[in-house]
Amino acid sequence: MMLKNLFYLSLFLKAFIASNDVSAEPLVVLQYNNVSELSDRSNEFTQDPDYSNKHRILPGESLNLIIEKYYNGSGLNTRFLQLAIVSLNEHAFRNRNINYMIADKTIHLPSINQISKLMKGIDFEIDEQPYYRQNNIYYFGG
After folding, report:
1. Rounded Cα gap, residues 98 and 11, in angstroms
2. What pLDDT shows up at residue 19?
3. Contact status, residue 110 vs residue 118, Cβ threshold 8 Å
4. Which of 7, 11, 106, 113 sits between 20 and 30 A of 97, alpha carbons compared?
């Protein structure tokens, strides 16, 4: 009888230990910093994710030349930039074609945050001022 109880006790302990191993979850520690992955680059668009600009299209100018002039060194994908600029400036492109820009039109060159909102389908105004969350701690009481 004692041998039988010892067997059940060892079986119970093995099951208990195995269930603890299975249910164990890893501990993940995330580090938060407010620095963009692109912020170490020397481009205004990557230094400030809310920075945007305007450009007046000159005769004979191409969209790729404009992108190179303003976004050079930013590390941003040229195809995404082309799509974002055309989407936000339909008035300056015939049939939304990057090869048919209309001279003397002023186009909006979007910020990184605006491109992100555009890709996520979030509506925004082109001239909208960015919202800056304040990281202040207030203490009320005595």
Report:
1. 72
2. 54
3. yes
4. 113
Rounded to 10 degrees, what is the CA torsion of 82, 37, 50, 101?
-10
Q: What is the mean pLDDT of the chain?
A: 78
Q: 60-95 pLDDT, tens per residue? A: 999 999 999 999 988 899 998 999 999 999 999 999
Question: Do 79 and 94 meet the contact criterion of CB atoms below 8 Å apart?
Answer: no
Domain membership flag for residue 64: yes
- Top-confidence residue, 115 or 21: 115
Q: Which domain holds residue 112?
A: 44-120
Q: Please state, in angstroms and rounded to a whole number, the distance separating the CA atoms of residues 123 and 128.
A: 11
Residue 110: exposed, middle, or buried by beta-carbon count in 10 A (0-12, 13-18, 19+)?
buried
Strands 53-56, 106-109: pairing is: antiparallel
Amino acid in position 12:
F
Domain presence at residue 80: yes
- Whether residue 87 is contained in a domain is answered as yes
Total of domains in the chain? 1
Cα dihedral 92, 98, 103, 104 sign = positive
